[in-house]
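Notes from hallway chat w/ T.B., transcribed later so I don't forget. T.B. wanted the structure written out for a chain they're using in a teaching module, and asked if we could keep both sequence and structure tokens in one place. Agreed to drop them here.
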Amino acid sequence: MNTERPLERKVICSVERAYSNSESDVGKLRAYYEILPSNEIVQINSIELFCETERVFVTGQFTELKEKFGDRLFEVTCIPSSFEAREGDCKYVTRFTSCTDIKGLVCCQIYDHPLPSVASPEFITNKKPVTKNIVLRNASKLYGPFEYLCDTDNNLDSYQIQIKAISTPLNNTLPFHIGEIKADEWSSYIFEKPGLPTLLGNIKKCFEHSESIDYITDDQIISVYGSKIAQNSEIRSFNKGTIAQIRKSFAASVEQRKYPDRFRRLFEALDNANNWEGTRKELIDNFLLTQSGRNILEAYIETNKEVFFKDEKQAFLKKLESTHVQLKNDIQELTSKKDKIEGEIRKSLREREEMELNAESTLSIDTLSKKQKEVLDNAIAEKKLILDGLSNQVESLQRKHSRFNTLEAIEQEIKELDRDKERAQGRLNEMNSQVEDVATKLRSSNEQLTTRLLELKPHVDALSGIAPKPQATQISYHVPVKALALNTQDDDLREDLIDGVLESLNSLGRKTDYNSVANILTTIAQTQFTLFSGRPGTGKTSLAKNAWRDSWFKE
């Protein structure tokens, strides 16, 4: 039989410290107990040596581990370190994924405090609990385990702990009961060192044969027995007579004879509730007359104004919607009037410009001859400059060809040029041959590469998740030519064309102005290529198509 210890060991730890000067997110944990393969909880290094440092090294994600568990204890599965351990080094290492919350009553923190009365089950401490459940120690006795609620008092830097019996009974412990044991009998399971929380391990084993103490709180009494009262159909209201009826209904119950103190506290709570009912309204009314009461009432109404003003809000929203529709219609009507007035203004401006041009032409007749003379003088000066330039070029050519003053020299030069031409033609033929060879090789390689790429494309598209693109349908941009009357004036034709395109674009949601439409139609009509600039998706292509479709030009 193989009795060797497995490589993995389970321990109960808390976060100790990180290495701030390390680029890796590493740190150490403080070990308190070891969980043996038999599930027994023993103090670290008490049965078998774990590590002299009583620490576990975390190899990564230490910050996440600290954020998850904080100051709480948790269970850690660790393995021996693969590095040679020197003095002061941890023999075991773990990682973030090997750290989990403690399940069940593995260990509890011990507080040295007398057992509070069940009527006021609370105490003050300067140590925050690090375990899910706690135990109280008074002299030589241990009481518990308890569930708790912890409230922080920031002003006093202390914690108020409210305790109650655990909801799940331990072994033979009755519901809402706690156990009482002698501390010296279980000292081997108590972890107690200066500066560290005092802990008790093996909770189930320690309280297996403990003395039971009824520790049901007033809240638990109301919750348990109040639900039974609420289920009684004969009880319709709550007053002194009702309390007497409740006393009578529980008088013959076995549970009252078994726990008389519980029912005494229950009836006291009912009497207090009945007395409180009579004075509650008066107290509330008096409180609401104070400034503090008014502030609380105003804050409550502010928080719940959605409920209080629901109907008013709906009526106001309905009124706003009606007003919005009316204003929208008014705006559309005013916009139409504005466009009409702008058209009239543009027409008047054109008429004024024509009149001004006619007036200027009349005034310029007197000065025409003077201006013509200036223009002719400038033209003559420009022609003289051109003539001087040509003269300089002629002189340069004469100097260049002065050496060809005889026929023999010219013939010799022609022969040399022919020989140079033949040599150049030979080199050209060789280069053309080389170019053809390279082109043939490139075409062959290109065809092979294209064939290979076409074969690989479906596989690449399939691996990349690209769906095949459907074949695009051909779009016809042919537009009909609109017939014009022979007596149509140029100004009216231009006005009607621009206004028609502007109105069509506005109806398609393409809001623009008169001058922009005039510029677009002018550039489309005057040149084969028109460039629209702007960011992608701003509608450049659709604007050109719509303007062309709605104009009277033929494609």
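Follow-up for T.B.: The mean pLDDT is 77. Might be a good example for the class.
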